[in-house]
Amino acid sequence: MLRYTLKRLGYMVVTLWLIITITFFIMHLLPGTPLKNEEKIPPQVREQILEQYGLKDPLPVQYVKFMGNLLQGDLGKSMTLDGREVVEFIAQGFPVSAFVGSQAVIFGTLIGLLLGTIAGLNRGKLVDNAAIIVAVLGVSVPSFVMGGFLSYFVGVKLQWLPPGLWESYESSILPSLALSFGVIAQISRYVRTEMVEVLDQDYMKTAKAKGLNRSTVIIRHALRNALIPAVTVLGPLAVNIITGSLVIEQIFALPGLGKFFVQSIQQNDYTMIMGVTVFYSALIIVVIFLVDLLYGLIDPRIRISGAKE
Description:
This protein is mainly α. It has 13 helices and no strands. The termini are close together.
């Protein structure tokens, strides 16, 4: 298991390095510079600004300097947003995105597991058909459509919850619900499919023949094995939601991290682009690593086979 874990950690480091390197060089292919109203800036001032941020150095030199600063934990300063540290923007925007996204993931996972399990146990019945319809709608209807619907009808028309802004806990409920529908659809679909397959396996018949009650058979044998595909899709899905949905943040006027990321791309803010990319990438890689470890907890056979490799 230790060898398996160290091997995965090595893959994580190499993957993060590749993402950083590719993003760095592609980023500099964007047209323009980080300077606002560049044509109105005197040439001497322009040269001083470019020199200040190291943009006059050859690209390989800039890359080496960036990697050196990154290894020291320095993500640099924003080139367009008042020269503030990139870490400040991440610290300001990520908690909002993470809070809303975490609620969406938790709620969506619980409802998805329940819905998928019930559907799998009632294959071909009304409940199963209803679950399939919910899953199809959840996948087909974008979260921003659901967000607009909830904001207008629940927030504006019915006035049950705030339609937008970030003022209290109630402000997080509607955006979390809008994001959770996709999670419900994905989890319920995978769990339902696996439950149908697992229930037909020989070991399920053996468990029933041993006299185990129905709930024990479902929880300890059927659901446990059906969770593996759900865990696979849940990892990247959770990161994508937690790191922030730009459209949802715009609909509900949330001060999340997605807003800063898109602004940085539009304004060629190289340090902000790289800082947020490094943060996002590291988060995704860590979550995928944790998902790999969860496999071993859910199914010991995976842990054993991984150790043998």
